[in-house]
Structure formats: structure tokens, C-alpha cells
DNA sequence: ACCTGAACACCGTTCAAGT
DNA sequence: ACCTGAACACCGTTCAAGT
């Protein structure tokens, strides 16, 4: 027995940790500037690492984007939990959706990656995206119990509608200017009971 | 005077016409299979033309995609006009939106190009996309006059919402399965008057 | 362990050379 | 006029060679 568990891999080297952090930081900035189809070579250059280093830390482009998204999912899940504790049902839901959509604007082009995680159980994001959606679904349920949202809507419906509006609002300035209006049209609509017949 | 107007360019050669048609036909099939990011080399290969020929007819990738979309825009504009003449307001609008969304599924990834034409006046699609939206807007107006849709929605709002749902439904199978439900949620919502308060 | 950068197989786009 | 395919400057990804 040496004090180090032989099963657990030893701690990464200091330079590896530093490089990983640099790459993530640069990737976040570059994606915010150029969108999700930004050049990985460009990211490696600006992070001042070789291409091989980038690939050692993130085995594929998707893995790098996923690392960017995970933070956001975890943040939104936590935010939902806090709102559930602190705010009345309808207000909590509205505030959370606002946070969801406003954040999405900074992740240009990542909406596609986000949607892909829903069905891809092998994705390392599958779990954290699911946790975020579950947290949102709880806010939705509370709002439905309070009669603020029609009952035939579930968490995935809500996620899809809000994701769809976030995406379209990122497409072109004329529509971006209507983001809030489009959002309101949807939420107003969901507040009414389903039509009978 | 020779009988040919010197200003008007002469008719294209027969091989040029044939190649253009082949490229378009192949591009349509390939985009349907692989989406809008399909390889142009692949399209040229399958159309059995050189890369230069593809570029002679479509000076950029965007131009080729636009040629595919234009047909669709023109078709939808005509369809709207026919429905306006033949059907009661609410039914005409619903049927047109159904045609719009169901067709979009075959144009995987082209939604982004479609949205881009709204603000880009230099795009050759700007006009035909605008004409299609105008035709849809007339159906919307009729439905609003009949009291079937809340009045604070315009043609661009409707286009954005329907485009957004079409896009999201193309992203992943789980959501694709809910396409009709999501669509119904939005249209139900638009049927109610704006909330006062 | 980890890093580097050249190498590979692609891509979109251009252009000299052919008919 | 129109077509061809090689050439160019990129890209994502891999891998032998270094420390």
C-alpha cells in the first residue's frame, strides 16, 4: 500500500491542467465570436497549444462543444432549483425560461448540439442535459398545478418550443428584434386551456 | 438587324442546359439524403460533371441551395393564392401552414439559408421569399378578420414561429414525433385574444 | 505523461488548358 | 461557350518524434 489507490489514475500534470483550461477559455470566446463551426486550428493557435494537445483533451470537436454546454446545463439546473424554492410558480417558470433563452444567444450554433444530446444516450451531455430539463419540468408542473399553464404540455414540449424560438431569434436581426414578442406569443398561448373540440 | 436582339444574351448551349438540370436534380436528392452541408464535390461527381461546371452554373454553394429553395417558395406562394380563393379563412391558413411545415422536412438544413434571405436584400432569394411570405400574410390577415387569430401577430411573426417549429422538429427523432402537437400548441395559443393585463 | 507539428485525406473555390 | 481536372489554401484528425 502506497497511499495512492492504484485504480484511480494519478492527478494530471500541472501543464495539462493549465492547457485544458486555456483551451476551454479560448474556445468559449471564439464560439461566442464566430459560432459553433469555428476552426479548431484557430482555437489551438489562440490557446498557444499544438493541435495534438487540443485533441488529447477533447477527442472530437463535439466533445469540446459539449464541455462548453455542460457548464451551462449545470448552471440552469441549479437556477431552477433555487427558483423553485424562492418564487411563486408562474413567476419562477417565467424567470427560468428567460434565463434559458437569454443565455442561448451567447452560444451561437450550439443549439443543434444541445438537441442532439436528447436522443444520444452515449453523449456525455445526455445526463446533464436531462437533469436540466428535469429541473425545468418541475417548474412547469408547479405552474400547471397553479393553473398557469395548460395541462397537456410536458417538459420536453416546453424545452422544444423555447429552444425553437431561441434558435430562430439567433438567425437574423429582424427576427432577433422580436425575440420577446415571439416568446410572449407562445407563453400566452400555453396559459389558455386546450380548446375543446 | 439580324433578328436577334444584341442586348439579350443568346440562348445557352444545349449541353449547358442539360448540365444545369442534372446538377439541380442531383443536388436536390443529395441534400434530401445528407442535409445542406453535403459535399459539392460529391454532387459534381454524381452529376458526372467537373467541379468547374458546377461553379459555372452556381457561383457559390449558397447559390445552389438558393436554386433549390426558390422552387419551393414559388410553389408555396401559388398554393397560398389558390387557398385564398377556394377556402374559408381559418381552414385556408391551417392548410397552408401544414404544407409549409411538411415540405420543410425534405429540405434538411436549408432553414438557415431561408432565414438569411429575410435581411439580405442582395440575395436572389430575397424577392421570392418575400413574395411567399406576403402570400402567407394575406391568409393570416383573412383569418384575423374572421376572428380566428389574435390581431397582434403579423406575417413575419407567423413565419418565424412556424419556421422555428419546423427546424426543431428536424433536429432529433423524439421531437420529430411531436411535430403536430407542438404545432397545435402554437396555433391554439394564437387563436386566443391577447391577455389584458 | 504530455506536447508538438508535420502528414493525411478531405473540403470549397479558382483557373489554365482544352474542345 | 462551355467543360475539365489539377492546383490552392484551407479544414478535422492522426501520429511519429520529442521532452
UniProtKB/TrEMBL annotation, chains A, B:
Keyword Signal: no
DNA-binding region: 39-58
Species, as recorded: Streptosporangium brasiliense
Domain HTH tetR-type: 17-76
Alphabetized UniProt keyword annotations: DNA-binding, Transcription, Transcription regulation
Segments traversing the membrane: none
Domain of life: Bacteria
Pfam families from the UniProt entry: TetR_C_43, TetR_N
InterPro entries to which the protein is assigned, alphabetical: Homeodomain-like_sf, HTH-type_TetR-like_transc_reg, HTH_TetR, Tet_transcr_reg_TetR-rel_C_sf, TetR_SbtR-like_C
The protein's name: AcrR family transcriptional regulator
Amino acid at each position: 500500500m502506497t497511499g495512492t489507490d492504484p485504480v484511480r489514475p494519478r492527478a494530471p500534470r500541472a501543464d495539462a491542467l493549465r492547457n485544458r483550461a486555456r483551451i476551454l477559455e479560448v474556445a468559449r470566446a471564439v464560439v461566442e465570436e464566430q459560432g459553433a463551426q469555428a476552426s479548431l486550428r484557430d482555437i489551438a493557435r489562440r490557446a498557444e497549444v499544438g493541435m495534438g494537445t487540443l485533441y488529447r483533451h477533447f477527442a472530437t470537436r463535439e466533445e469540446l462543444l459539449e464541455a462548453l454546454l455542460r457548464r451551462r446545463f449545470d448552471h440552469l439546473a441549479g437556477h431552477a432549483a433555487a427558483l423553485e424554492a424562492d418564487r411563486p410558480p408562474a413567476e419562477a417558470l417565467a424567470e427560468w425560461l428567460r434565463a434559458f433563452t437569454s443565455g442561448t444567444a451567447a452560444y451561437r450554433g450550439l443549439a443543434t448540439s444541445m438537441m442532439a444530446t436528447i436522443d444520444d444516450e452515449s453523449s456525455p451531455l445526455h445526463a446533464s442535459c436531462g437533469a436540466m430539463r428535469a429541473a425545468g419540468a418541475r417548474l412547469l408542473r408547479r405552474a400547471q398545478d397553479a393553473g398557469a399553464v395548460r395541462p397537456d404540455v410536458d417538459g420536453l414540449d416546453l424545452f422544444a418550443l423555447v429552444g425553437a424560438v431561441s434558435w430562430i431569434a439567433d438567425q437574423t436581426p429582424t427576427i432577433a428584434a422580436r425575440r420577446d414578442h415571439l416568446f410572449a406569443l407562445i407563453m400566452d398561448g400555453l396559459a389558455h386551456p386546450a380548446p375543446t373540440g
